[in-house]
Design a protein that fits this description.
About 20% of the residues lie in helices and about 50% in strands. With about 140 residues, the protein is of the alpha+beta class.
Amino acid sequence: MTGGASGDKIAALYESTLINQLMGSRDERIFWGINMYAVIKSGGKQYRVAVGDVLRVETLPGESGSTVELDNVLMVADGSDIKVGDPTLADTTVTATVRGHGRGDKIRVYKFKRRKNYRRTQGHRQNYTELEITAIAGKGA
């Protein structure tokens, strides 16, 4: 296909499917009252989180079952009330429970130079901490 109306439909369908997989359908979120979300920064990456979400971030200290407070909150939205930090919101924290630590899938790094008989293979597995978001609280929330 060359795009156009059918391409837009496919893109919209893909986006809605992806959002539904990540957050449940819009009706489901409204039914359960999950309108509040926050954007946090952890390990150099930004994550959009809501209460009950489970996500994998770069390794954080803490045992399984312990509580972690993420104070690098960039934005909090509660329905139409949106607060954006400059660069972060003061006195706002996202509380999460550590579900466990692990290592991601292996990634193969392959270097190759043609006609020089140069080939190098290296593997890498990234460590992560799995968190479950329990609360979004503070002055900005």
